[in-house]
From TrEMBL:
<dbReference type="Pfam" id="PF02065">
    <property type="entry name" value="Melibiase"/>
</dbReference>
<dbReference type="InterPro" id="IPR002252">
    <property type="entry name" value="Glyco_hydro_36"/>
</dbReference>
<feature type="binding site">
    <location>
        <position position="406"/>
    </location>
    <ligand>
        <name>substrate</name>
    </ligand>
</feature>
<feature type="binding site">
    <location>
        <position position="163"/>
    </location>
    <ligand>
        <name>substrate</name>
    </ligand>
</feature>
<feature type="binding site">
    <location>
        <position position="505"/>
    </location>
    <ligand>
        <name>substrate</name>
    </ligand>
</feature>
<keyword id="KW-0378">Hydrolase</keyword>
<dbReference type="InterPro" id="IPR050985">
    <property type="entry name" value="Alpha-glycosidase_related"/>
</dbReference>
<dbReference type="Pfam" id="PF16875">
    <property type="entry name" value="Glyco_hydro_36N"/>
</dbReference>
<feature type="binding site">
    <location>
        <begin position="329"/>
        <end position="330"/>
    </location>
    <ligand>
        <name>substrate</name>
    </ligand>
</feature>
<feature type="binding site">
    <location>
        <position position="483"/>
    </location>
    <ligand>
        <name>substrate</name>
    </ligand>
</feature>
<dbReference type="InterPro" id="IPR031704">
    <property type="entry name" value="Glyco_hydro_36_N"/>
</dbReference>
<feature type="active site" description="Nucleophile">
    <location>
        <position position="441"/>
    </location>
</feature>
<feature type="active site" description="Proton donor">
    <location>
        <position position="505"/>
    </location>
</feature>
<dbReference type="InterPro" id="IPR017853">
    <property type="entry name" value="GH"/>
</dbReference>
<keyword id="KW-0326">Glycosidase</keyword>
<dbReference type="GO" id="GO:0016052">
    <property type="term" value="P:carbohydrate catabolic process"/>
</dbReference>
<feature type="domain" description="Glycosyl hydrolase family 36 N-terminal">
    <location>
        <begin position="23"/>
        <end position="244"/>
    </location>
</feature>
Length: 708
C-alpha cells in the first residue's frame, strides 16, 4: 500500500495524517492553505544514538512492539498470549473531513480501527475500536485514544474539585515523565473533570497556543500527558476498566468513548469558542427552539416539607417574579420525609398529595409556567419497599457489605428487571402527568460495582445512557437536567441525552464565580444551571447582596433556589429585576462568543459575551476580594469590530457606585461611568476603559452596543 497522506481541515485548524504503513498524526495546528504531501519530507526524524536502530513512531495505537517505550494505546492478552501487537494499515476510508484507518496484527489476531472527524468548528473527534479476529477470549486491560503534541506543548492545565467546589483549575509544567489524572468514583466526578489543556508555557485566556481535550464519558476515566525521553509529547484519554470487565470473543468489538479536542493559536478563548460552537451545532438537541426558561427550584425553599397549597402559593409568587419553569424537587414520593428513606419507591405520596399532583401542575400551567420534577432513579434506600422486596437488585459484589452513601445504594441497571421497573415507573410519572422537565439526580459514588460477581461499571454507565435514550424516545417533548450532587456528571456524552447541567449544589455567588468560569472552558452558558440563592447561602453560610448574587447567576441558564413566599419585598424586587435582566440579555448570552479577559490582579474576574455579528456585547467585572492594587486598571474589550463605534453603558452597578460614600470611603470614580461614551472598537480593544474601584464581593455589568 502506498504512503498515503491525508489533510483534514476544519475552521482554523489543519490535521495531517500519515495513513501507511501505520497511522500517525504528523501535524495538528493552524490551518495550512498551501500544503503539499511532498512537504512531509521536512518532518522525517533521526534515529537517536544508543537506541533501537529503527524509528519508533507515536502512532494511533502507540505500539510498544515497535520500540515505543511509553504507555501503549492498548493493553490486553489472550490467556497470556498476543499481548504485544504491532498494527499495520489494511484499509483507509477518507470522506471529506472524516477519516477511518483500519490496522491489523495477523499474528495476534487483532484489528485496531481509528476514526477521526474534524468539524467545521475546528473540534477534532477521535475514537478507537479493538476487534478480536481469532478464537479465544481476549482480555482487554486498556484501550485509549492517543494524540501526539509538539515539543512546545509544555504546560498542562486541568481541573480538580469536590462537592460544592467543582471545576477548580490547576497548572503543571510538563518537564519530564508524565501527569496522570484518574477518576474511579463511578460517574464523571466533581473531583477530576475529564479534560486537559496543554500548551505553550504561559498560555492564557487571550494568548498562546493551546490544545484542549475532553473525554465524553460519564464513568471512570484516565487522562495522561507524557513527555518521552526524546522530547516528544503525547496525551492519552480512556475509559478506566476494572479487572476482567472487558472481554472480547472472536468477532466482538470494544470502542473507546469519543475524545473531543480543539486547537487554538490565540489562547483559551478561541479553544472555548470552538467547543461551544461544536456543542451548539452537533450535540445539543432541544425539543423545541425557544428561550431557556428561568427556573424556580423548590429544594432550598422547602426541602422535604411538601404541602400542595403552600407549593401553589410558591408558584404564584414565582410567576410574579418572572419565573417561567417551576420545579418540585425531592420529597414528593411515598415515604420521602428525609434523605434516609424511600428512594426506589416511585409512587406519589398520597398523604402529602391527597388529590394527586394534577392540581399543582394545573395551577403552575395556568400561571403560564412549565412544570418540572426531581427524580433519582439509579438509587435505592435500604429503608424502602423496593429494597425490602428486592435486596438482590443492588449493584454490588456478593459476600461483601456494600457501604452506603448518603444512606443509599445503587441499583444494578444491568439487571433487566431493574431496568424494566425504572422504565415503567418513570413512564407512569412522565406519561400520566403534564411534565415538561426532569431534574435527574445521582447522589453517591459507586463502590464494588458488580453484576453477577463481575465488574460492571462500564456496562452500568452504558445502561444509564440506554435508560435516558428509552425515556427520551417515549417522551421527546421533555427536557432533562443532569445533576449528580451538583456537578458530578457533566460531560459531552450525557449532554447528548440532556439539556442542562446543575453546575454545583453551592449557590454561594463568590464560589460560583470560579466554578462557573471553570465550566465555561468546555460548555456554553445555556447549559450551565446558575441560580440566585438565599441571601445566606445554605452551603457556606456566607451572605451576599442581591446585586452580586443576581449578576453572578446572569451568565448561564438562570434560576432561583428559595421560597419566594417568605422573602421580603426588597429581596423579591431584586429577584424580579435580575430575572428581567437575564430575559433581556439571554438571546445574546445563549448564542454569542464567550470571552474571559486576562487581568493583572487575581482578585478580579472579567468575562463577557459578544454577539456573533459583533454588534452587541456584555461584560461582567467581578471584584472577588480586596484588590491587590489601589487602582484596578483598564478593561480592554475583546471581540468587537475595530472600525465600528459602540455606546458603552452601565447595565447594573453595585450600591457603592450609586450612592458614593462618606468620610474616608468617598471615592471619585471614572467620569465615563455616567456619560455613556461612544468609542470605536479598535480603541476599546487596545486602550480600553478605566475600571472603577469596587468593594470585595461586588460586580459591575457593562454593555456595548454598535451605533450605526
Amino acid at each position: 500500500m502506498e504512503n498515503q497522506i491525508i489533510h483534514l481541515t476544519g475552521g482554523q485548524t489543519s490535521l495531517i495524517v500519515r495513513c501507511t504503513p501505520y497511522a500517525e498524526i504528523l501535524y495538528w495546528g493552524n490551518r495550512l492553505s498551501q500544503f503539499s504531501a511532498d512537504d512531509i519530507i521536512s518532518l522525517s526524524r533521526a534515529v537517536p544514538n544508543g537506541r533501537i536502530d529503527v524509528e519508533a513512531p507515536v502512532n494511533f495505537s502507540a505500539d510498544s512492539g515497535r520500540g515505543s517505550f511509553g504507555t501503549p494505546g492498548m493493553e490486553g492478552h489472550r490467556d497470556g498470549l498476543d499481548w504485544s501487537p504491532v498494527f499495520n494499515t489494511t484499509q483507509v476510508k477518507h470522506d471529506g473531513n472524516q477519516l477511518t484507518i483500519t490496522t491489523e496484527d495477523a499474528v495476534a489476531g487483532l484489528q485496531f480501527r481509528s476514526e477521526l472527524r474534524l468539524d467545521d468548528s475546528g473540534v477534532l473527534q477521535a475514537r478507537n475500536a479493538l476487534t478480536s479476529l481469532k478464537p479465544g477470549t481476549y482480555q482487554v486491560t486498556r484501550l485509549a485514544v492517543t494524540l501526539p503534541l509538539p515539543e512546545r506543548a509544555a504546560e498542562v492545565m486541568a481541573f480538580h474539585g469536590r462537592w460544592i467546589k467543582e471545576f477548580q483549575p490547576h497548572r503543571t509544567l510538563l518537564d519530564h515523565g508524565g501527569i496522570i489524572q484518574e477518576n474511579r468514583r463511578g460517574k464523571t466526578s466533581s473531583e477530576y473533570f475529564p479534560a486537559m489543556m496543554i500548551g505553550h508555557p504561559g498560555f492564557s485566556e487571550e494568548q498562546g497556543e493551546v490544545w484542549g481535550m475532553h473525554l465524553g464519558w460519564s464513568g471512570n476515566h484516565r487522562l495522561r500527558a507524557d513527555i518521552k525521553t526524546d522530547g516528544r509529547r503525547l496525551v492519552q484519554a480512556e475509559a478506566l476498566y476494572f479487572p476482567g470487565e472487558q472481554r472480547l470473543e472472536q468477532g466482538e468489538t470494544l470502542e473507546t468513548p469519543w475524545l473531543y479536542a480543539s486547537y487554538s493559536a490565540s489562547g483559551l478563548n478561541r479553544m472555548s469558542q470552538q467547543f461551544h460552537r461544536f456543542v451548539r451545532e452537533q450535540i445539543l438537541r432541544f425539543p423545541t427552539e425557544k428561550p431557556r426558561p428561568v427556573h424556580l427550584n423548590t429544594w432550598e425553599g422547602i426541602y422535604f416539607d411538601h404541602d400542595p397549597d403552600y407549593i401553589m402559593q410558591m408558584a404564584t409568587e414565582s410567576a410574579a417574579l418572572g419565573v417561567e419553569r417551576f420545579i418540585i424537587d425531592d420529597g414528593w414520593f411515598k415515604g420521602r420525609d428525609h434523605d434516609r428513606a424511600a428512594l426506589g419507591d416511585w409512587y406519589l405520596d398520597e398523604k402529602k398529595y391527597p388529590n394527586g399532583l394534577k392540581p399543582v401542575i394545573d395551577h403552575v400551567k395556568n400561571l403560564g409556567m412549565e412544570f418540572g420534577i426531581w427524580v433519582e432513579p439509579e438509587m435505592i434506600n435500604p429503608d424502602s419497599d423496593l429494597y425490602r422486596a428486592h435486596p438482590d437488585w443492588l449493584l454490588a459484589l456478593p459476600g461483601y457489605q456494600q457501604p452506603s452513601g448518603r444512606h443509599q445504594f445503587v441499583l444494578d441497571l444491568n439487571n433487566p428487571q431493574v431496568f424494566d421497573y425504572l422504565v415503567e415507573r418513570m413512564s407512569w410519572l412522565l406519561g400520566e402527568h403534564d411534565v415538561d422537565y426532569v431534574k435527574w439526580d445521582m447522589n453517591r459514588e459507586i463502590v464494588q460495582p458488580g453484576h453477577e460477581g463481575r465488574a460492571a461499571l462500564t456496562a452500568q454507565t452504558q445502561q444509564f445512557y440506554r435508560l435516558l435514550d428509552v425515556l427520551g424516545e417515549r417522551f421527546p417533548h421533555i427536557e432533562f437536567e443532569s445533576c449528580a450532587s451538583g456537578g458530578g456528571r457533566i460531560d459531552f456524552e450525557v449532554l447528548k441525552r440532556s439539556h442542562r447541567f446543575w453546575t454545583s449544589d453551592n449557590n454561594d455567588a463568590l464560589e460560583r464565580q470560579k466554578i462557573q468560569r471553570g465550566m465555561s472552558y468546555f460548555f456554553p452558558p445555556e447549559v450551565m444551571g446558575s441560580h440566585i440563592g438565599n441571601k445566606r447561602c445554605h452551603a457556606t453560610s456566607r451572605q451576599h447582596s442581591i446585586e452580586f448574587r443576581g449578576l453572578t447567576a446572569l451568565f448561564g441558564h438562570m434560576g432561583i433556589e428559595l421560597d419566594p413566599v417568605k422573602e421580603g419585598e426588597a429581596e423579591r424586587a431584586g429577584f424580579a429585576k435580575y430575572t428581567r435582566l437575564h430575559q433581556q440579555l439571554r438571546p445574546l448570552l445563549h448564542s454569542g462568543d464567550v470571552y474571559r479577559v486576562d487581568t493583572h490582579d487575581e482578585t478580579v474576574l472579567i468575562h463577557g459575551v459578544v454577539s456573533v455579528n459583533k454588534d452587541r456585547a456584555v461584560f461582567l467585572v467581578s471584584q472577588l476580594a480586596m484588590p491587590t492594587w489601589s487602582l484596578p486598571g483598564t478593561l480592554r474589550v475583546p471581540g468587537l469590530k475595530a472600525d465600528a463605534r459602540y455606546r458603552v453603558t452601565v447595565l447594573d452597578e453595585p450600591a457603592l457606585l450609586k450612592g458614593g460614600g462618606s468620610g474616608h470611603t468617598m471615592r471619585v470614580q471614572p467620569a465615563w461611568l455616567h456619560e455613556s461614551p461612544v468609542l470605536n472598537g479598535e480603541w476599546l480593544a487596545n486602550a480600553g476603559v478605566a475600571l472603577p474601584v469596587l468593594d470585595p464581593e461586588s460586580a459591575l455589568l457593562l454593555g456595548f452596543e454598535e451605533i450605526r
